[in-house]
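Hello Y.,

Per our agreement to keep a running log of every chain we model this quarter, I'm adding this entry. I've kept the format consistent with earlier entries: sequence first, then predicted structure.
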Amino acid sequence: MLKLKNTVGIILLAALSSACTTLGNNAETLSGDKKSVVVTQTGRREPIVSGHERRYFLDLRQKKALLPRMSGALATGEAQAALELARGQLAKKPGDVEAMILMANALIMTKNYDLAAYYAGLVDKASPGHAAALNVKGVATMLTPKARMADFRKAVAYFEAAFAADEKQIAPGMNLASLQLELGNAGAAAKTFGQVANRCGDCTAALMGFGIASSRSGGFVAAKGAFEKVLARNAHHSAALYQIALVHKNGLGDSKRAEAYLNQLLADSSIKDTATRERAHSVLRSSKGTMAPSDRLEVADENDAKDAELMLTTMDADSVEE
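Predicted structure for the entry above:
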């Protein structure tokens, strides 16, 4: 298993952190053709890149057609329900490509990586170069418990191929950039996160990734701009407040501005993120010289924000005929 200094989750066994999955090979933009799969990246708890509220995906669960019901189940984190629906669809239509992709996504969520790769392989045989299948192969390769450096390089190749196969794909770019960042190539990660941000309309997940990667590669001005965009959209975003404080403190040399952001974070009663609050307190103590030298070093070399949510690409109700 790969061991990196101060990193958590390259194998991602605990939280499926950086793994992003996608449904279709011909994804459209959020305002795309109703008969096409729509790029709707969602996290396990809330949408990340979505034109819909959570209620929309819950409503999909009530559709008569299996594919939208399956898609809704994945978007709301009901992996076992999605698996059962996928099995039902494949019993009716063996070899159904979309059902197999949904099955593979659900298997990734339940950490059954070998079987997920198997279904992705079936899709790749039926539709060579299928971006979603390549992405699932990358996720399964990256998350296998005994993965070695050669496996991570193989996963990078899968993600690169998936990302290049369709300019509307988002998930493989998030996976690629996250893995590049974990492997220590922050410059490449910043470039990839920037490409993802262009594709997803400056979605928060991509902006946060771009900001963190830019900061680690010395691009502090670019990092500051990314976090400012996130905060302009949501002034209560705890990770953005914390990260922009670190940029000002460690990169731009503006301790007063850093303390202002940290104090803003701590004064915001709507922020319930206790871990980020504790880190903010630590940085403030470091700034005021009340922290031990070893603790100050740990803060300075911290592995930044929380891991990204598992993301899925679901479909609009109108994208599959009843």
